[in-house]
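Appendix C reproduces, verbatim, an entry submitted by the partner laboratory led by Prof. M.T., so that reviewers can inspect both the input and the predicted structure.
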Amino acid sequence: MFFIGLLVGITGGYIIGNKVAIRNGKVDSKYEAALELRSAFYPTILKLKHGDEPSFIVAKDFKNHQLAAIEFSNFLSGGELESYLNSLTDYNHWYKTMCTMSPEGILQKDSDSEYLVEKEKDPIHLIKVILDHADV
């Protein structure tokens, strides 16, 4: 259910982002969109490398990541877009699991198998997989 909602959200965001980018002329090329994507994620990577709590850092920067990711997705198509959306979905799932936990979830996180799987993932690696698509 979450996966379907996430795909609908990403697709809707893609369509809206595409229309906004075209109408406002914000992003003139794939190169500029890639620069925006990298500039949204690099400060987060630097903070994560300094050893701060990953869930707090990502939660603070997540909205900027999503906006840049939607704008960049306008310039992708076919298999490249599918691969990009898969990596973005992995990152979004990590964010949802690690950063948006309910109070009950916090108390039960050590017995939650989904949490334990996501906890082992490195957010820097998840971000770098997304940024691999921005090498233009």
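The two ends are 34 Å apart (CA to CA). Additional entries are available on request from the coordinating office.
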